């Protein structure tokens, strides 16, 4: 079995980084930090799209990468940031389930992602990890949505789930 | 060409309504738009019966018998809601419940809402269909938040968050369907999300991916259709939206969501055999009926009562589809037709009672027949029609669904189905008979039936009364052909 080519490695690395960022969002309680993490995650998503565009030679994905970085990496976080400042919402988020338990649950979601994706990608070496991570990202996003009480934080969680979904698009 | 006109008409009307200021012109545009749509839908149905499916723009738009059925029902519901809306909002405006700006917003959003519903039925590309279903959510969420009260904002928030989660899963499923199909399609991959292309190759899809895709789509569009346990947005949304919008949601959008499920069910049945998707549909369908039943029995709010009835009916349609065979498909589509022509009347009656008595609570309204004789009598009648008592048409489709269940050997599902439907019948009858025939409250304001609202209600009465005895030949042909599209495939 040959080692995967550098393109696949980079794409998988970016997907893994997105998962790490998602877990950081679960772990910490501050709203503004959460928005920054979301921006970082969107940036990674945009870079991953650009990486696919480069390595697999599908130029229209550059367009998607630009849209993602401009829209979800810069404009949306900026807007949410301003909104949070303006309505003077409390910074701490008070999730229903405390972060350590939540982390364990998210570990379970990641496992589910791998289990669900396994039969789909048997034989196809490329993109196997990416699909699993995408499913895990969507599941953790939904968990964040359920786990939070305020409107703004729910929107943020929904956007994260959406990031996972876009990640899946590339699989 | 006709497909293009069907879509452009509501889109342009909606955009024009943003510029129109005069309330009379707004009403006039909305009603005449709906009249045109009904006429076009009738022409579309006839052409499809005569010449088979129609397509346009390099297969971008596609209409077969199933699309024509959904288009026809959407047009019918839009027409009766538009007529009812005239009376309803004039009264709201007169009693200062809404401002002129809100009045304007309703009439400008509704054509766009109708446009999104029609696009669901006419788009060939499953991705575009997904966008259109999301479009119905976006157009209707502002209608749910319409009254700007705390409860209506809460309902709208719930609706958009739960709806977005569902729609995210449906997109996931749509993409996976493409993935499952991509190898089988070969040279057609450029049109790989076109339903007409997919159905021709569904036999060679990747089984594992298609299985996961169907589950995701069922949960996703099931959320939009209000299947249990994803139904929780429905009672709030139906109770808070203004009545004409609630009628559009409860008798229009529900068909669009089911339409999405039906399309994917046809693909999954060809790829995986009927049993996998069929059993899932039966499970969700029967669960919805059984979950709706206790909530109907203990309900205190008659607007929410209608929402639980709609969960029940979505369950019946999905279960009938799952029972399978030509009989099951026929039952599901007949039920879609009968439900869509009956439900608006129930919403309108409830709306009249709520506007007159100023409350949606059952305990505060008794003996409505003494103040609003027409409304109360129709309300009682539609209660019988909606809960499936003979001679009304819904009895026939529920009976067909049961025969399909027994023919396919789903005995337990059939038993639970009957228990649920009977419990809902009993619950409805207790509540609505008290509401209409109970001892009248002495402080009830004197009543006067509004001609617009009554006109819309009598218009709905025509099919409600007629379809129980005779189903016009062209409509039956259309339904039969649509049933062959789904049931014939398995």
Order of strands across the main sheet of chain B = 1-2
Major sheet characteristics of chain B = 2 strands, antiparallel
- In what range is the share of β-strand residues of chain B? under 5%
Radius of gyration of chain B: 21 Å
Q: Report the strand count of chain A.
A: 0
The chain pair with the largest interface is: A-B, 15 and 15 residues
Brief account:
Chain A has 171 residues and is mainly α.
Question: How are the elements arranged and paired?
Answer:
The complex is a heterodimer of chains A (171) and B (490).
Chain A: H1 6-27, H2 31-55, H3 60-87, H4 99-121, H5 128-147, H6 151-169
Helix pairs in contact in A: 1-2, 1-5, 2-3, 2-6, 4-5, 5-6
Chain B: H1 2-19, H2 23-51, E1 54-56, E2 61-63, H3 65-94, H4 100-122, H5 126-144, H6 150-185, H7 195-201, H8 207-225, H9 233-240, H10 243-272, H11 274-297, H12 302-323, H13 325-357, H14 373-386, H15 393-407, H16 411-437, H17 451-466, H18 473-487
Antiparallel strand pairs in B: 1-2
Helix pairs in contact in B: 1-2, 1-4, 2-3, 2-4, 2-18, 3-4, 3-10, 3-13, 3-17, 3-18, 4-5, 4-10, 5-6, 5-10, 6-8, 6-9, 8-10, 8-11, 9-10, 9-12, 10-11, 10-12, 10-13, 11-12, 11-16, 12-13, 12-15, 12-16, 13-14, 13-15, 13-17, 13-18, 14-16, 14-17
